Amino acid sequence: MLRQTFTSRLFGLLLALTTMLCTPLQASWGEEFGGTEPGKWVLGARVGFSPLTQQLSDNTSTSIGPLVNFQGLYSITRWLLVGLMVEWERHGVSSERPDVDLGHQDTVSVLPTVELRPAKFDQITPYVNMSFGVNINSFGEDTAIRISPSNTFAWRLGWGADYRLNEQFALNAEWAYKRNDGHTTGTGGWNDDWNASSFGFLFGGKMFF
Fold this sequence. Notes:
mainly beta, Porin, 8-stranded antiparallel β-barrel, 1 helix, about 60% strand
């Protein structure tokens, strides 16, 4: 029931974002609409932390892991940017009964991205972005148990804001949800219950040129 409620809320947010994407750029908005300049490149580097949204698999616990994110975007209009995001995260994994460290899962996500910047408030520019791509998962074992997670379809939805220090640089904070739901093979055979979907909390900087 909790997972269904969570999924319903995510689809609601996705519907709202899709509505924004499909809304025509009306002439009455003029220069008031949009939070960036056409033809600008945006390069970002952020670090942070990432908890999973649920239990990874039955009888397992996971640590809150480090998160590193790089992005490159190009502004097509005053409000629409497209580009690529690459993200890495790691989570320590242990069994609960008995309490044994199993190792750690690494995920590298390659994410073509669309970003909307509807407005600008003095030095603050809020935005929302959505990405679709692939999660490349791997596992480093600490025991004789072999675990091989599958690569999965990645869907990421992020919200954030830039605080412009000047025309070239900005501080950034972003919160995101990323889907990473797959299976594993290995010593225990096929395990279809392996969900490494996560929340990401990122802090860093961006360069505009």
